[in-house]
Amino acid sequence: MNPRKALLRAYKEEKPEPGVYAVRCQRTGQAFVGATENVATRKNGVWFSLRLGSYPNARLQGAWNAHGEASFVFEVLETIDDGGLEPKGRALRLADRRKHWCETLNAIDLVR
């Protein structure tokens, strides 16, 4: 089989893993917490928007602009087992865990 086709098939068969993540500024210690349906691909989306200057959270975008990309790290805080959950149940669990991590880390919620 063509290696490209094999990679494409593997990508399509990969199950998204929902979870909660943090974007941290190493210079200031400030943390920004978000939740996503697929933690494996979220960093690329966040970094892409920040590099373009179009990230929806103005506080994160401002910190990025002030301190530069090299000052930021992306970390997965938690993945959730969504087995048996309907989409609304998964969304509620993600929101609950995002809130938990915002409180635990004294972080800025990326939803707000």
Give a verbal description of the structure.
It comes from Caulobacter zeae. InterPro entries: GIY-YIG_endonuc_sf (IPR035901). This is GIY-YIG nuclease family protein. By secondary structure, this protein is α+β, with helices and mostly antiparallel strands. The protein has a single domain (16-109), classed as 3-Layer(aba) Sandwich (GIY-YIG endonuclease), CATH 3.40.1440. The protein has 4 helices and 4 strands; from the N terminus they run αββααβαβ. It has helices at residues 3-13, 39-52, 58-67, 87-105, and strands spanning 19-25, 31-36, 72-79, 108-109. The chain has a 4-stranded mixed sheet.
What is this structure, in a nutshell?
The chain is built from four helices and four strands.
Count the DSSP helices.
4
Number of domains: 1
Which superfamily, in CATH terms, is the homologous superfamily? Answer: GIY-YIG endonuclease
For the largest beta-sheet, the strand count, sense and barrel status come to: 4 strands, mixed
Percentage of β-strand residues:
15-25%
Number of strands: 4
Task: Report the principal-axis shape.
Answer: flat
Elements, N to C (H/E): HEEHHEHE
Q: What is the averaged pLDDT score?
A: 93
Q: CATH architecture, please?
A: 3-Layer(aba) Sandwich
Structural class: alpha+beta
Which percent bin holds the helix content?
40-55%
N-to-C terminal Cα separation, in Å? 47 Å
Q: What is the CATH T-level topology?
A: GIY-YIG endonuclease
Cα-atom Rg, whole angstroms? 16 Å
